[in-house]
Amino acid sequence: MKIFISHKLQDSATANLIAKELKEIKVDCYLDVLDNSITENGKELTNHIRANLNKCTDIIVVMSNITKFSQWVPFEVGMAAQKDMPTATFLKEDVSLPDYLQYWPRLKKSTDIREYVSARNDVEREYHAIYEFASQQQKTEHFYDVLKQRLK
Question: What is the CA radius of gyration of the chain?
Fold first, then answer.
C-alpha cells in the first residue's frame, strides 16, 4: 500500500501530520512537499503528479475551507477515481464537502488514519483469500462499507 496525500499548499502541516502517522505504522506515502524534485509547472507538473499518483494504491484528500480553491485537488481526485483507487477525505475542520467528495469515507483524527489502514488491509486479505477474481471496483466498494462502519 502506498498512499497519495492530496492537499492545498496551505494545508501542508496537516498533510505532513498524516504522512508522519502513516510512517509510524509503516505505510509508504507520497506527499509533494517532501518531494525535492518538483521544479516543473504546466505540462511537466501535470505529468509529475500523474506519474506519482500512478505509483500509489490509495489517496487521502486533506479538506479545509480553502480546498475548494485548489486546481490540483480535483485533478488528483479525478485521476484516482478513474482507477477505482480507494479514496478518503481527511477533514481538517468542520467543512462542507463539495459534491465530488461526499461519497467517500471521512477521516477526522489521526486514529482514523490507522482505522483506514487496518480496514484496507483486512479487506485486501479477505478478497485475496476468498474472491481472487473480484474486480478492483468491487474491492473498493467493500472497503468503503467496512471503513464507514468502523468510523461510526
Answer: 15
Q: Which three cell numbers stand for residue 41?
A: 509547472
**Cell 488528483 maps to which residue?**
76
What is the pLDDT averaged over residues 5-16?
91
Counting residues of the chain whose pLDDT is more than 90, the rounded percentage is 38
2-108, CATH topology level: Rossmann fold (3.40.50)
Instruction: Give the β-pairing of 28-30 and 58-63.
Output: unpaired
Q: For the chain, give every domain's residue range.
A: 2-108
Residue type, 125: R
Contact residues for 17 (Cβ-Cβ < 8 A; gap 6+)? 110
What's the CA gap between 127 and 51, in Å, rounded? Answer: 27
Q: Which three cell numbers stand for residue 1?
A: 500500500
Residue 39 reports pLDDT greater than 60: no
The whole-model pTM stands at 0.81
Residue ranges of alpha helices (H) inside the chain are 12-24, 43-54, 72-82, 110-130, 136-151
Average pLDDT along the chain: 85
What's phi and psi for 146, nearest 5 deg? -65, -50
